Amino acid sequence: MSHTNITIFHPAVFVLLGIPGLETYHIWLSIPLCLIYITAVLGNSILIVVIVMERNLHEPMYFFLSMLAVTDILLSTTTVPKALAIFWLQAHNIAFDACVTQVFFVHMMFVGESAILLAMAFDRFVAICAPLRYTTVLTWPVVGRIALAIITRSFCIIFPVIFLLKRLPFCRTNIVPHSYCEHIGVAHLACADITVNIWYGFSVPIVMVIVDVILIAVSYSLILRAVFRLSSQDARHKALSTCGSHLCVILMFYVPSFFTLLTHRFGRNIPQHVHILLANLYVSVPPMLNPIVYGVKTKQIREGVAHLFFDIKTWCCTSPLG
């Protein structure tokens, strides 16, 4: 029996190319990407501070909204700063373990955000379909268990990806044609069978997200049935307005994500730089828009932001440094 010796190694670093084919436009692309990222971090941070400081926002709905804001900050921060470093500083290298960590957090935040949107849909379902039981169903211990379940589920679904990548031998190239590390993109660099990576990486998270979408759709079908049974037009309008911002956020999350996944999976004739641009927009634009949508559509948040800036202005005027 003969044995073939194959040199197998995990590279010390991967080389991220940024957006191949658009290298000459990296600086120009970095400007809107940087502005989007700053807006996303600033908007979600203000949203979290307002929810923490305003007592009338200490409700389950706003607790889940603060979780969504934290997830958006983590999602964009995991990817955008490295992309900007590539565009501005030519910092293409990323350590192998840092690359795997980036893969883990990108996918975990994606699955986690889907679960948070499901929790918010459940909150709206109870508030509209069983308003008299809202405070007894969504108690703070229950909300805490839901939050723990979201984190645990997201972690358990994505954690195997670390081992699926670390088990692979990388003996061909360490060049990643992307601006950040993504599971299947990194796995394709291996000189081994990646069937398990493809099936797990594409099927398991997507199946869980599809389940979330189905449950959200069921929740909103029941919500709409309950709303249109209300006799008062004002009551119907008020009930629908409380769901409007959540529906907008749901569409901004799922439509681009499924479009990106489907074009990546089946759009073989679409240029590679288009896929990478879509991926960068997906991890930056929804996190930027979410706090804006809630700020525009939710009166309590608008008032909380106004109070926050009034307090800051008052402090600046009365401070000895002012």
Automatic annotation (TrEMBL):
GO terms for cellular component: plasma membrane. The keyword Cytoplasm does not apply. It is found in: Cell membrane; Membrane. It comes from the Eukaryota. InterPro entries: GPCR_Rhodpsn, GPCR_Rhodpsn_7TM, Olfact_rcpt, OR51/52/56-like. It is a multi-pass membrane protein. Its main location: membrane. The chain crosses the membrane at residues 25-50, 62-80, 146-168, 206-228, 240-262, 274-294. One of its GO terms (molecular function) is olfactory receptor activity. Pfam families: 7tm_4. Residues 43-294 form the G-protein coupled receptors family 1 profile domain. Keywords: Cell membrane, G-protein coupled receptor, Membrane, Olfaction, Receptor, Sensory transduction, Transducer, Transmembrane, Transmembrane helix. Odorant receptor. Belongs to the G-protein coupled receptor 1 family. This is Olfactory receptor. The lineage of its organism: Eukaryota, Metazoa, Chordata, Craniata, Vertebrata.
